[in-house]
TrEMBL record:
Annotated TM spans: 142-159, 166-182, 263-287, 358-380, 392-414, 420-442
Protein name per its UniProtKB record: Glycosyltransferase RgtA/B/C/D-like domain-containing protein
Keyword terms: Membrane, Transmembrane, Transmembrane helix
Keyword Cell inner membrane attributed: no
Organism per entry: Rhodoplanes serenus
Transmembrane helix is among the record's keywords: yes
């Protein structure tokens, strides 16, 4: 967090005039409304042609917010909420983008500033620097290519080092997690780059006896980076899934050491992750004389359970009522209807990992699960099954269980934010790819029940 605080202080010294000019230019030339497909060369259309900056508007408003002093600009994070006014068609329709448009129009209604200290939001100083010097369209292009190619590069290095399972995981992530779309956003790109970096570490660490200390350091760095950029966008459960798989694949000849590697890495990750959030909240609490842990606890609890009606979009509620004949707010609290509604929502939003097609999205998830289930049914009952394959299967089931547990714990959040949380569906796809490679490896070996 010291790096985030220092970056925020340095970025604040740049002022916001050039950032405002960049954003005004983006509105004037229409680049703020730019849409982007989910993989290169395939453009989205219809409902899937979504403005790529609709999430980034939250970060942009944090840049434009008027912090009262240097301490606030260093430690705190603000956001702008739109004033009551007709929708501005020059910017995306969501509230953050509408507030952005209002903030850039001094003659119109001005948005209200509110502090948003529950997240470190390390994207803010990065956004301030980029908006000061670089047009938005350039930022989008560079981020998108960098994020996508980082996974491709990891896959190529893994192939050269003949760690084929990790190569399959990196390639599957690049192709089936919407990286081309989400990786072009400041909101998601740092998290995706952190995932790519950890997979890259796993590729380089794979060997006969990888050191536990290396996994502890990697886990701590991974947790710190995820904590600095995470805003309940799914970065944490995906990171835990990658840790489970990467630690299982780290030592081809000693899969029995998986438990130790996993425990060390997860503990280091969680301690660093919690530490980042704690430092942010403690620092702001001391600076303001308020207890932010108490102040933001209700918002966290609301992500878990409670009435979702206040946050539910009227358009979404009406669509669910028209298509399924149900009240989404009531169904969320029903133990039978709730899971069915969740499945329907995520079935639709599986298009995020299916190149804009829910059919492809559901298909790749089903195939991934199918490979995992069939391999497990054949390997687990057999006393002669490959220990490495069994270890990888256990790691994959753990990875899937983490995603399910995350959704069950953050139930309201999962229901309300399927439009990006559906990216969690990439985990069974990754597992299917990894297990398929492992099964092929075992079949080419001797003495396996899977020959």
């Amino acid at each position: 967090m010291a790096t985030v605080f220092a970056g925020s202080r340095a970025a604040a010294s740049l002022g916001d005039q050039r950032a405002r000019a960049t954003l005004r230019a983006a509105i004037a030339d229409g680049s703020i409304l730019e849409t982007r497909g989910f993989v290169p060369l395939i453009r989205s259309s219809g409902r899937w042609a979504v403005a790529v900056h609709r999430h980034d508007c939250l970060i942009f408003t944090a840049v434009l917010a008027a912090y009262p002093d240097a301490t606030s600009a260093t430690l705190r994070t603000a956001r702008l909420g739109p004033a009551a006014a007709p929708l501005d068609p020059r910017v995306p329709e969501n509230p953050d983008c509408q507030a952005l448009g209002q903030a850039l129009d001094p003659a119109g209604p001005q948005p209200a500033m509110a502090y948003y200290d529950r997240y470190p939001m390390a994207q803010r100083p990065i956004a301030q620097v980029l908006l000061t010097f670089v047009p938005i369209r350039t930022v989008t292009t560079v981020l998108g290519w960098t994020t996508f190619l980082s996974f491709v590069a990891v896959a190529l290095v893994a192939a050269v080092r003949r760690t084929w399972s990790l190569a399959a995981a990196a390639l599957a992530f690049a192709l089936f997690s919407g990286t081309w779309h989400f990786g072009a956003m400041l909101y998601f790109a740092p998290l995706d780059l952190a995932h790519a970096a950890f997979l890259g570490f796993a590729v380089m660490a794979a060997g006969e006896r990888p050191r536990l200390a290396a996994f502890a350091v990697a886990g701590a760095l991974y947790g710190a980076v995820i904590g600095a950029f995470e805003m309940l966008t799914g970065g944490i459960p995906v990171a835990l899934a990658l840790i489970a798989m990467a630690t299982a694949l780290a030592s081809p000849s000693r899969p029995q050491d998986w438990g130790g590697r996993l425990a060390v890495t997860v503990v280091a990750f969680c301690v660093a992750l919690a530490g980042v959030f704690a430092v942010k909240l403690v620092a702001v609490s001391f600076a303001t004389g308020t207890n932010l842990f108490v102040e933001h606890a209700p918002a966290l609890m609301h992500r878990l359970r409670g009435d979702i009606a206040p946050e539910l979009s009227p358009a979404v509620a009406e669509r669910m009522r028209a298509v399924f004949g149900i009240d989404l707010a009531a169904a969320a609290r029903d133990p039978v209807q709730g899971p069915l509604v969740l499945a329907a929502i995520y079935g639709y939003w599986s298009g995020l990992i299916g190149w804009g097609s829910p059919i492809i999205g559901c298909l790749v998830v089903v195939v991934g699960f199918g490979v995992l289930v069939v391999a497990s049914l054949r390997a687990f009952p057999s006393p002669t099954a490959s220990l490495r394959l069994v270890t990888v299967l256990r790691a994959c089931w753990l990875a899937v269980a983490v995603q399910i547990a995350w959704v069950l714990v953050f139930w309201n959040h999962a229901l309300l934010h399927g439009f990006f949380m559906a990216r969690l569906l990439v985990v069974p796809v990754l597992c299917g790819a990894v297990v398929a490679v492992e099964v092929l490896r075992v079949r080419r070996g001797a003495g396996s029940v899977l020959r």
